[in-house]
Amino acid sequence: SLKPNKHRNYEVYLLCLSSVIHYYFHTAAVTVLVVALKFHTIFLTIIKRMKLITHNMLTSKGMKNVIEGFPLKIQAEEVRNVDIEFDREFISRMVPKLDWNALIFAAQCVGHQEDLPEILPEGYENDDDLLKKLHHILLEVEVINGCLECPETKRKFPISNGIPNMLLNEDEV
Amino acid sequence: MEEELINTIKTPIFSHITSEDLDHIYEPSEDSFLLIDALEKDLDLIRKSKPLLCLEVGSGSGVVITALGTVLGSQCHYISTDINLHACRVTKETGKLNGVDIKAVCTDLVTDVMGDVKGAVDVLLFNPPYVVTPSEEVGRGDLEYTWAGGECGREVMDRLFPSVDSLLSPHGIFYLLVLKENNPADIEQIMAKLGFTCTCVIARRTGQESLSVLRFSRQK
């Protein structure tokens, strides 16, 4: 279910990286829609969303003049919650592969900041409460339509149907 | 209660791929299936390394990462990249059709993916555009991306090798499909300098092509 009110409070922190301008995004959105209509109907029913676990692995470092390019700001038009089975071992093994600060930032962007501690506590593997919160923020919160914004250049990378498009133009590399 | 481990990899269903899709993406072919066969052969080794994160670069139709996903199951996280947005979409569909959740990202090789988290990937897969073509044909159009490998068919895969060290976890494994003309011995040397040992997992001659799948892991 959508949480637009909570979401608006965090508008400032919306996720990073996305199409360069609002205008571009709308053009791209129309193009995607037209392209989508041409394809097999199955495409329209399998609309996937981007999870925060994916966001944690994306940067804009490939762009020239970008030093960090991480974390990207999430600008989500729509955010949805889904139910995914909790796999304790999976989550606790995943933690070392994540950038904790980027995760906190992403959580802020989609309105779940209050759930996670600023610093990863020791002994997290045994903290079921924390693991469940992590599970929720990593796998159960999905960005439907939106973009990711580079923290340095403000260049926006679109997310369409859950697929972040990180392709750079020739002049950006 | 002991779970029975599957030891064979069934070829994933990919009947959802339309002829229109094939105007843009690489149709699963002998090379794709050879890579899947290699993974099947190495299944014990892969399982022993207790993988968590699997990444396929240039996933195309997604059959390879999907095949891996069907045997490793939901204990793993699957990411794919492809420079072609169609391929990203088809990869997710192939995954879904076969019960594998794949997180697809549209990008050039691994640009802007896994940039800041070092050593996270446990299984890295790459079936590169390996056909020997003139350099100008590399990275052109939709379908040319999928096979044009430029000089010695190496221009695309050579761009990935420098990233392998920072991508792979300490026990991570990298599977690469190559053609005889790609000069596997030379690739072995390059990767050795980067700290990786090379093993040929499987080799097959299909028609004109002599293909093999190389496995790279860190030198002890």
From TrEMBL, chain A:
InterPro entries: Trm112, Trm112-like. One of its GO terms (molecular function) is protein heterodimerization activity. The keyword Cytoplasm does not apply. The chain crosses the membrane at residues 23-47. It comes from the Eukaryota. Keywords: Membrane, Transmembrane, Transmembrane helix. Pfam families: Trm112p. The keyword Iron does not apply. GO terms for biological process: rRNA (guanine-N7)-methylation; tRNA methylation. Belongs to the TRM112 family. This is Multifunctional methyltransferase subunit TRM112-like protein. It comes from Cherax quadricarinatus (Australian red claw crayfish).
TrEMBL record, chain B:
It comes from the Eukaryota. Pfam families: MTS (PF05175). This is Methyltransferase HEMK2. Belongs to the eukaryotic/archaeal PrmC-related family. Keywords: Methyltransferase, Nucleus, S-adenosyl-L-methionine, Transferase. It is found in: Nucleus. The keyword Cell inner membrane does not apply. It catalyses: L-lysyl-[histone] + S-adenosyl-L-methionine = N(6)-methyl-L-lysyl-[histone] + S-adenosyl-L-homocysteine + H(+); methylarsonous acid + S-adenosyl-L-methionine = dimethylarsinate + S-adenosyl-L-homocysteine + 2 H(+). Gene3D superfamilies: Vaccinia Virus protein VP39. One of its GO terms (molecular function) is protein-glutamine N-methyltransferase activity. GO terms for biological process: methylation. SUPFAM superfamilies: S-adenosyl-L-methionine-dependent methyltransferases. Methyltransferase that can methylate proteins and, to a lower extent, arsenic. Catalytic subunit of a heterodimer with TRMT112, which monomethylates 'Lys-12' of histone H4 (H4K12me1), a modification present at the promoters of numerous genes encoding cell cycle regulators. Catalytic subunit of a heterodimer with TRMT112, which catalyzes N5-methylation of Glu residue of proteins with a Gly-Gln-Xaa-Xaa-Xaa-Arg motif. Methylates ETF1 on 'Gln-185'; ETF1 needs to be complexed to ERF3 in its GTP-bound form to be efficiently methylated. Heterodimer; heterodimerization with TRMT112 is required for S-adenosyl-L-methionine-binding. InterPro entries: DNA_methylase_N6_adenine_CS (IPR002052), Euk-Arch_PrmC-MTase (IPR052190), PrmC-related (IPR004557), SAM-dependent_MTases_sf (IPR029063), Small_mtfrase_dom (IPR007848). Residues 34-132 form the Methyltransferase small domain.
